[in-house]
Request: fold
Amino acid sequence: MTEAQNEPSVTIEALMDEQRVFPPSKEFVAQANINAASVYEDGKDYETFWENQADSLLWRKKWTKTLDWSNPPFAKWFVDGKLNVTESCLDRHLENNGDKVAYYFVGEPGDERTVTYRQLYEEVCQLANGLASLGVSKGDRVAIYMGMTVELPVALLACARLGAPHSVVFGGFSSDALMDRINDAEAKVLITCDESWRNGNKIALKSYADSALEKTPSIEHVVVVKRTGTAVPMIQGRDIYYHELIKDQPKERPATETDSEDTLFILYTSGTTGKPKGIVHTTGGYLLGASFTHKNVFDIKDDDVYWCTADIGWVTGHSYIVYGPLANGTTSVLYEGVPNYPDKDRYWAIIEKYKVNQLYTAPTSIRTFMKWGTEFPERHDMSSLRLIGTVGEPINPEAWIWYNKYIGGGRAPIVDTWWQTETGHIMISPLPGVTTTKPGSATVPLPGIGADIVDEEGNPVPWGGGGYLVLTHPWPGMLRTIFKDPQRFVDTYWGRFSKPEENRWVYFAGDGAKRDVDGYYWLLGRVDDVMNVSGHRISTLEVESALVDHQDVAEAAVVGRNDPITGQAIAAFVTLKGHVQGNEQLIAELREHVAAKIGKIARPASIVFTDELPKTRSGKIMRRLLRDISEQRQLGDVTTLANADVVNDIAARAAAMQTSQED
Ligand code: WTA
Reply:
């Protein structure tokens, strides 16, 4: 961590001065699922705490030991317990709640589909039977690359029914990114769709998949959901349409028994190297963590309509659209598209129509809504909203207050939830019936979760100070390893602050944070080479490799600079090969090149050409300096640079040259 990307900055100091507090209302407390502060006391004995919650799941065979932490940092929760997550998410609701709605699907073009728990169960069984007929069995990996339609949660659950780990690849990723992930997971089957709808456009997922599949030897079959109906090439013997695959399949299929520690899914996320990591989540502990936090952080009641706007391609969708809500028998909205199609009030229209009670969305969206103006939410009656939440990045107090006022009607508590792909479920967040909130703070660790702030040496920093956010003991939904790379798991997450000789194991989250004098956590962003663009993690190295992959590029450095809407924006500095002249056209070409290599979310917002990159005498690129340049800050001492004179030149060029990032 020599090249800190996000050090505490001035805005954070301002944030820490935030004095407003929002205690839960009497009315909310009276009806809350959890309303006694004593729950935090209960959580201190975390093993017992989680064990006491675990009866909320349907187990086939009870565990013999709650936590096995004898081989840290490799944890086992609910040792010897047997279950299949789909029995908790589907089967057990059938008897009393078979006709209850699981998903109100809202297609971007305006089509709708209501799916009850029984219908969901039947379609999951049919697809599980279909996948089994293609040779998928327990332990086989299945890759999923789809838009947000009902068939997407069905696909995840059908894999889970078979005990086949799924690896969902976000539909916004490119062919190359899909190919890398399929190959790393050695997936046997890919489930995709013809095209998906986004912002009124058709996104050609099958065609992207076909390019990826030219170099994915492990894939035997491709299942294709018809979404837009556009004819797509189908390769005989390999490709089959979803509706044809499930057509004659029985609507029942016994769930495959899995162990509490069998892998439920792999989800790739960016780290500090160019290669994405396959985060491995297992079964019992993960489902418990996702369902407990879903129920209690969002204060879910049986009749609620809940809506998480994330894409299932990210962990938020896994835990809070699929597994958490379904385990709790909740009715969710599942929306396919963007918030401004056909107009900027789409979210608010959906909330009014379905009388949504809980909304869970991202700060970047909230800032976008602020920019669009209050007229859009004001068009709709959103009095059904009882609670609103955020995830993905720090929320600035201004956006928090706007969200509270214009979306929550000044009435709905806000839960700012901090967690990660690796943690599996929410870790730091208010309990809405207990915790007084402060705009901009994720508040305190949930009961049963241990967090701390430490300094460079790993010593706890007293309240009032800042440092590195760490997690101090195991939790049920924790990642178990990195797929095929346990050593990287140990080094990346446990290497920095653990003291194995004292048997002290500390998970380092990669985030900086401060803790105020009341013990509230204020997240400061990543302290490694990971950017957070619109709540999505992108590694600087990944973007750099994509740029260098272009024939005209000699060298590239990428930093995340602050952006009022997307949190961070990607700023790239590129040196070209000797004979090449940089111009607008090449900038456009490079941005598209990155989009093709990784996905549009990774396209740099600005590219500056420079004859040299600022480097230390040992040859390291000074990213911190580039960030200062990008944010037009006064430049500090540059005397350690090997090529100090290059800095002014870059700064001048950067000021002159900025392109804006499209969606
Ligand atoms: C950031 C998303 C501040 C953080 C669930 C973390 C947040 C990374 C918050 C994980 C929050 C997430 N406040 N920062 N409430 N929630 N983050 O893996 O930097 O996509 O490390 O998981 O997002 O992103 P990931």
Notes: The pocket of WTA is lined by residues 269, 314-316, 391-394, 416-421, 442, 509-511, 523, 525-526, 532, 537 (CB under 6 Å). DSSP finds 21 helices and 30 strands in the chain. Residues 117-133 form the longest helix (17 residues). Residues 35 and 392 are 26 Å apart (CA to CA).
